[in-house]
């Protein structure tokens, strides 16, 4: 997990896990605060309930890292609404990437088996949807394990710039961006706070 140092309201420094060096990022705007994230995820959970007749057949799969936190929150909310326990797993798509960041597959990258997903309604969860390549890699990983009944996609932020014909079924917030901008999602589970920033 990268270190984050708050300098002032307009500047954050991010420490790269690989290099240990800090990179300056300018905060252009706060897209969501803690309450905004709470409301957004609650709405997404209600939409999932409305669009799925058999909630007990749903399996949430969070894309590492922050998709895991989002998937768990959605699962918990649906349980609080409907008293129905859905499945919850995570996936690390590193070995399914189509770029130079692809790595050799490790045993701990996927914590599910064919029996967990075959015939299930999978809801793939990630924090930000950008080019669509992460979602494609995640779907490839899932299909390599079993044959789900369906795969739906839920994301907290859709920033556009798709390079593949992929769209999300559940979107927390659509944020038009330029390629030079970045979306940074913070979750309590990994970062100690909840917020979404637009950076440059």
In short:
This protein is an alpha/beta fold.
List the helices and strands and how they pair.
Layout: E1 3-8, E2 11-15, E3 22-32, H1 34-51, E4 58-63, H2 66-82, E5 87-91, H3 114-117, E6 121-129, H4 133-145, E7 150-158, E8 170-174, E9 182-186, H5 188-191, E10 195-199
Helix pairs in contact: 1-2
What would you report as the Rg, rounded to the nearest angstrom? 17 Å
Question: Which CATH top level class fits?
Answer: Alpha Beta
CATH topology: Rossmann fold
From the 3D coordinates, which CATH architecture would you assign?
Answer: 3-Layer(aba) Sandwich
Helix-strand pattern, N to C?
EEEHEHEHEHEEEHE
Low-confidence stretches: 1-7, 15-21
Task: State the helical fraction.
Answer: 25-40%
- What is the count of helical runs? 5
Please state how the strands of the largest beta sheet are arranged side by side.
1-2-3-10-9
Shape: globular
Please indicate the percent range of residues in DSSP E strands (runs of 2 or more): 25-35%
Task: Provide the structure class.
Answer: alpha/beta
Oligomer: single chain
For the record, the count of structural domains works out to: 1
Describe this structure in words.
The chain is α/β, with parallel strands linked by helices. It has one domain (34-177): 3-Layer(aba) Sandwich (Rossmann fold), CATH 3.40.50.2020. It contains 5 helices and 10 strands; from the N terminus they run βββαβαβαβαβββαβ. The chain has helices at 34-51, 66-82, 114-117, 133-145, 188-191; strands at 3-8, 11-15, 22-32, 58-63, 87-91, 121-129, 150-158, 170-174, 182-186, 195-199. The protein has a 5-stranded antiparallel sheet with strand order 1-2-3-10-9. Strands 5-4-6-7-8 form a 5-stranded parallel sheet, with helices on both faces. The chain is globular, with a radius of gyration of 17 Å. The two termini are 20 Å apart. 34% of the residues are buried.
